[in-house]
Amino acid sequence: MTSLFRDKTILVTGATGSIGSEIVRQLLTQNPKTVRIFSRDEHKQFLMRQKIGDIDAIRYLLGDVRDFPRLLRAMEGVDFVFHCAAYKHVPLCEYNSFEAVKTNVIGTQNVIEAAEQQGVKRVLFISTDKAASPSNVMGATKLLAERLMTSAMYSRGQHPIIFSSVRFGNVLGSRGSMIPTFCSQIKDGIPVTITDPEMTRFIMSIPEAVSLTFSAMEQMQGGELFILKMPAFRLSDFVAVLIEEVAPLYGKKPASVTTKCIGIRPGEKMQELLMTAEEAQHAMETETMFIVRSSLDPFKEDPSITPRIIPKAYSSAELTPMDRESMRKIIREYFAATPLPLVMTNAEERE
Question: Is 130 a catalytic residue?
Answer without folding.
Answer: yes
